[in-house]
Structures are given as C-alpha cells and as structure tokens.
C-alpha cells in the first residue's frame, strides 16, 4: 500500500491486514511505554486545510508513538490564506523531506491530486476530503465494531452478517461514504436512514438499503446504530423544518435508546451535537463507543502509517509474547 485515499478501492485483504496490525498497535497502547522505534527518522506532515480536533491529534499521537518526526501545518495563519496553491504548499513540504502527508481538505479529491500529481513522492493519507471519503474513520469504526462484537484480539475476522444502521446527514458525510464501502467489503449489511433531503441523489447505487423511518430501523434490531453529525457548516439551504423536528424524527433519544437490543452498540464519529442527533444519555450510555472510537483511532492510524512507511512489509514481526524489540525497530 503506497497511499490510503479511500475505502472504495481498499481490498478485503488490505482492510483485514490494517485491522490486524491495529490490534498489534492497541497491545502497545496497553504497555507502560507506549512508544515503538519503528518510524525513527521518518517525517510525517499533518496538512490540515479544514478544522479538526480529533483526527489531527490522533494522527499526531500515532506518528509520535511510532517515533516519527511530526510537522503540523494548518492552513489558517499560513501562506495558504495569502493564496498559495495546494501545489506550492506540497512542493514546500517535499523540499522539507516529508515521507508521509496526512491531508484534510474541503475539496473532494484533493488527497488524490496530491498522490497522483507527481508534486511529491510521499505517501498520502486522506484525513477527510470534502464530502468524499474519510478512510481512517471508517477503519477505526470497523475496528471498534470488530472488538465489541467479536472481542479484543479478533484478528483475521471480517464483519460478515453484522447489521449496521447509519442515521442522519448522509448527504454531507464522508464518514458515511467511507463506512458504506468498507462495511460492504467486510461483509456487513448497511441501512441508511435519513430525511429524503439529506440523502445524496446517487444513493440508490450504493450497496445499502435506504429507509426514512428511524423507529422502524430501530425495531429491526441492528447490531450497530451509527449517528452522524448534522453538518451545519456545509448546509446552505434548509434541509429540515427545525432542529426540534429533526431531533424528534431522526434523533437517537432516550426512548429509542431503550428499545435497542441488549447487545447493540451506539457509535458517533464526533463532534456530537448533543440533543440534536443524539441525546446525552445515548452518548454516555454503556452502549456508546464514542470514547473507544477515539482511542482506537490512534491504533488504526499507527497501523496505517506503519504499513505505508515501512514498505507494507507485514512479515516484520510487530509483537510476540515476550515483547522484546527487534533490531529493525519492530517488537519481538
Ligand atoms: C468527521 C469529519 O470531520 O468528517 N469527524 C471526524 O473526523 N471525527 C465527521 C463530522 O465532522 O461530523
């Protein structure tokens, strides 16, 4: 794997390898010393043209725990606000010797452009591009589902037969798109539930069932309910009558939470609008995986950086029972 741009193009084998390496990385997170020397001497640049809290610090923590040098570049306060183009910015980074570039951009396709333009020869990781994709989010979601439903350390497993209902602002959500593709690759069955105004026009060609009624979707007893944020910043028109009406019809409120099956889980990529798409009780309930998703994000991003920057050599042993380090920077 040279870049991680989308889940649509990710093979089942690569997806499972990523999740399995993330298990190894999660084991490292449980140790007293959370750091591996694996990427010593490599430089990872976080290039964020759009706001982010979780994703940026997660990539930063991941790179640092693998001993890479990290440069954080956010578009605000940089020459980008003076009109410098993506190309000029990329060439500046290349001149600094970046081995990997983690990019978030409001334009769908910006990471693809960086990866294929020839401006840089670093590995490119898409950290969210417009309304297109957010592959590491989908991978951390799949990792979280696999751990909750099959148990920790369930290496080699896919999500065959798992039922996942994704609810809310599908139209603007790169998280929904990346999840739909990855979940289908891993064998899960996806249902999308939203007001018709918040579904994209081409949704009928996606590998997912469509519904408009959240109560019916909950009564179907899905294993996973994933709530999405209403993305006000991408809305330039009225997509629903009022927030109150939205919460009443499409929000995961306390009553709907109580109707979920005993083992089903509630997910949200964050940031949450409490009281709008999700109630505080749902967000904080034992079913909620919101905090696990954040923690798992670091393990999954460590796996992605490792696989991209170590040449994708999965044969390098990462961990063994006695936890000793190898001379090549892995851990034996
Ligand atoms: C998501 C994003 O930025 O696409 N958040 C995230 O990465 N944790 C979802 C969102 O903004 O609603």
From TrEMBL:
Cellular-component GO terms for this entry: cytosol
Domain Aspartate/ornithine carbamoyltransferase Asp/Orn-binding: 160-308
Sequence similarity: Belongs to the aspartate/ornithine carbamoyltransferase superfamily. ATCase family.
Organism expressing this protein natively: Leifsonia shinshuensis
Gene Ontology terms for molecular function: amino acid binding; aspartate carbamoyltransferase activity
Residues where carbamoyl phosphate binds: 54-55, 104, 134, 137, 270-271
Encoding gene, per UniProt annotation: pyrB
Chain ranges passing through the membrane: none
Stored InterPro entries: Asp/Orn_carbamoyltranf_P-bd, Asp/Orn_carbamoylTrfase, Asp/Orn_carbamoylTrfase_sf, Asp_carbamoyltransf, Asp_carbamoyltransf_Asp/Orn-bd
UniProt pathway: Pyrimidine metabolism; UMP biosynthesis via de novo pathway; (S)-dihydroorotate from bicarbonate: step 2/3
PROSITE patterns xrefs: CARBAMOYLTRANSFERASE (PS00097)
NCBIfam families referenced in this protein's UniProt entry, alphabetically: asp_carb_tr, PRK00856.1
Substrates-to-products reaction catalysed: carbamoyl phosphate + L-aspartate = N-carbamoyl-L-aspartate + phosphate + H(+)
EC number: 2.1.3.2
Record GO biological process: 'de novo' pyrimidine nucleobase biosynthetic process; 'de novo' UMP biosynthetic process; amino acid metabolic process
Function per UniProt: Catalyzes the condensation of carbamoyl phosphate and aspartate to form carbamoyl aspartate and inorganic phosphate, the committed step in the de novo pyrimidine nucleotide biosynthesis pathway.
Superkingdom per UniProt: Bacteria
Name assigned to this protein: Aspartate carbamoyltransferase
Aspartate/ornithine carbamoyltransferase carbamoyl-P binding domain boundaries: 2-146
């Amino acid at each position: 794997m040279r870049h991680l741009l989308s889940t649509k193009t990710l093979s089942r084998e690569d997806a499972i390898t990523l999740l399995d390496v993330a298990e190894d990385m999660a084991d490292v997170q449980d140790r007293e010393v959370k750091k591996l020397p694996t990427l010593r001497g490599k430089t990872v640049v976080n290039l964020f043209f759009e706001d982010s809290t979780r994703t940026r610090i997660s990539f930063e923590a991941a790179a640092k725990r693998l001993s890479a040098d990290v440069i954080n570049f956010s578009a605000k306060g940089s020459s980008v606000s003076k009109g410098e183009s993506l190309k000029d910015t990329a060439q500046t980074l290349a001149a600094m010797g970046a081995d990997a570039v983690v990019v978030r951009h409001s334009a769908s396709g910006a990471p693809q452009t960086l990866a294929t333009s020839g401006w840089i020869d670093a590995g490119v990781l898409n950290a969210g591009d417009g309304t297109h994709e957010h592959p590491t989010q989908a991978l951390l979601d799949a990792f979280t589902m696999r751990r909750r439903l099959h148990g920790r350390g369930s290496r080699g497993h896919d999500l065959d037969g798992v039922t996942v209902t994704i609810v809310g602002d599908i139209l603007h959500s790169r998280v929904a798109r990346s999840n739909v593709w990855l979940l289908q690759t891993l064998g899960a069955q996806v249902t999308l539930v939203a007001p018709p105004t918040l579904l994209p026009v081409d949704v009928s060609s996606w590998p997912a069932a469509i519904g408009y009624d959240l109560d019916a979707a909950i009564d179907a007893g899905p294993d996973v309910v994933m709530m999405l944020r209403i993305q006000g910043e991408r809305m330039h028109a009225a997509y629903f009558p009022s927030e109150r009406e939205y919460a009443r019809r499409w929000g995961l409120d306390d009553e709907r939470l109580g109707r979920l099956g005993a083992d089903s889980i509630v997910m949200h990529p964050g940031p949450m609008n409490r009281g709008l798409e999700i109630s505080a009780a749902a967000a904080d309930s034992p079913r909620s995986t919101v905090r696990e998703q954040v923690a798992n994000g670091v393990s999954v991003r460590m796996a992605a950086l490792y696989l991209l920057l170590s040449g994708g050599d999965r044969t390098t042993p990462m961990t063994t029972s006695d936890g000793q380090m190898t001379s090549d920077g892995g851990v034996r």
